[in-house]
Amino acid sequence: MSNHGLAADALGPFPDESHLLCWSAGVSPDRVIVVGEKNFGENNGHVYARRYRPEYYEQRVPPEGGDAFLSRNRRFHDFYGERYLDLMSFVTDDAGRVRVFTPDHHFISADCRHLSLGGAKFFAERIEWGRFLPMQ
Description:
- By secondary structure, this protein is mainly α.
- It has one domain (about 5-125).
- About 30% of the residues lie in helices and about 5% in strands.
- The N and C termini lie far apart (about 40 Å).
């Protein structure tokens, strides 16, 4: 089962104990940045099937794992606060549905797992890099 399913959600707010390893290694919690999971649904077959419809590029899909995934993401955000890079916040609407295409009509993730070039650019343009990688 993927990390997005209900079984993974049963593990609680953390997918593993890597955060404890960082802190036990003497890394200050203030220097730990947690990058949230990305989730673009189960597959894009139903998206491709609508390719000749006028609303094709406006499609949104539920994330794989649905509300359980979104709840888990919120727990990460609540726990880590400003140290959490919430990738889903860039693609999820108020109804919990995930955008499929960038504003310039490129798939964010053609396989629902990995970012496409257009998807990588989409995220890169939205992340507040100075917040996570301050220049010193």
